[in-house]
Design a protein that fits this description.
There is one protein chain. The strands form two sheets. A three-stranded antiparallel beta sheet has the order 3-4-5, with helices on one face. The chain folds into three domains: 64 residues, no CATH class; 34 residues, no CATH class; 75 residues, no CATH class. The chain contains seven helices and five strands. The protein is extended and about 70 Å long. Helix content is 38%, strand content 13%. Belongs to the BCD1 family. InterPro entries: BCD1, BCD1_alpha/beta, Znf_HIT. One of its GO terms (biological process) is box C/D snoRNP assembly.
Length: 198
């Protein structure tokens, strides 16, 4: 057993391949390594190590993807007139504002999480934003950000040395300590080739 090093190992973790002797040791190893115990279906396997089991695993993975896509296509909200009408209205409003609004198909997590809306009374968009700070490996999601709010105002609660929350400020220390002129704001270009990082 790779956890207690006392008993003979009976189990092997499908995720990290660690050997364990009992349920207690399995739980300990999951806590220690933050392992969920679920096999990574998309893990890279070199051609030299590729076996019939890997081929079967890939085949089952593709079948699961097909079933999930089929279930998403049959989901009642896909064909709901209300959903289509709201989406069509949102696209039309965006087009009038010279915004190229693109949506993911139903079933995608990003589509489910997105809370972007258009307020007809105020005639403005309220965006769903995800701020990613790569040097600190931190992500923050903002909902209902008005389209007239500047990027400087959006970032103030995160990287401003005076106005930001102390806990957030500590986590994003590299950004708060740097001069504001050194902080670059980049937006990922969508619909690019898979390996593109532009």
């Amino acid at each position: 057993c790779e956890t207690c090093s006392k008993e003979e190992a009976k189990y092997r973790c499908p995720r990290c391949m660690k050997y364990s002797c009992s349920l207690l040791c399995v739980k300990k190893h999951k806590l220690a390594l933050s392992c969920n115990g679920v096999r990574d279906k998309t893990a890279f396997v070199s051609v030299n190590e590729f076996t019939d089991l890997n081929l079967l695993s890939d085949y089952r993975f593709l079948e699961d993807v097909g079933r999930t896509a089929d279930a998403a296509a049959r989901h009642p909200t896909t064909h709901s007139p209300t959903t289509k009408k709201l989406l069509c209205c949102l696209r039309n409003k965006a087009r009038k504002c010279n915004i190229d609004l693109r949506t993911l198909p139903v079933g995608f997590t990003k589509r489910r999480e997105n809370s972007t809306t258009f307020n007809c009374m105020e005639k403005k968009f309220y965006w769903h934003l995800k701020l990613i700070f790569p040097h600190c490996r931190a992500e923050y999601t903002l909902k209902g950000v008005p389209d007239d709010k500047t990027l400087a105002d959006i970032l103030k609660p995160y990287i401003d040395p005076v106005e930001s929350d102390p806990i957030v400020c500590q986590r994003l220390k590299i950004y708060t300590a740097s001069p504001q002129s050194d902080v670059q704001i980049l937006m990922k270009i969508e619909n690019r080739k898979q390996n593109s990082i532009r």
